[in-house]
Design goal:
The N and C termini lie far apart (about 35 Å). This protein is globular. The chain is built from no helices and seven strands. It has a single domain, classed as Roll (SH3 type barrels), CATH 2.30.30. It is mainly beta and about 80 residues long. A five-stranded antiparallel sheet has the order 6-3-2-1-7, with no helix packed on it. The protein has a two-stranded antiparallel ribbon with strand order 4-5.
């Protein structure tokens, strides 16, 4: 039986980044990875990825997407 890891945030929660380069940024949690203790927050830690041309994206180019943040660096935003 797999061990369940409890986290203080869940998907769709509003959170504030409390430490690191993105301190003070707020956003909605898009994904939680409890095994790695990481979360992906909407609009925070944007990373650029270079994509080759494919059938779905014939022009290729640079894609911006959110990167993971350690779960201890975020807290629930007060309402």
């Amino acid at each position: 039986m797999a061990k369940r890891v409890k986290t203080h945030v869940k998907k769709d929660d509003q959170v504030v980044v409390i430490t690191g380069n993105h301190k003070g940024d707020t956003g909605r949690v898009l994904q939680v990875f409890p095994e790695k203790s990481q979360v992906i927050v909407e609009g925070v830690r944007m990373m650029k990825k270079h994509a080759k041309p494919t059938q779905d994206r014939p022009e290729g180019g640079i894609i911006e997407k959110e990167g993971p943040i350690h779960i201890s660096n975020v807290k629930l935003a007060t309402k």
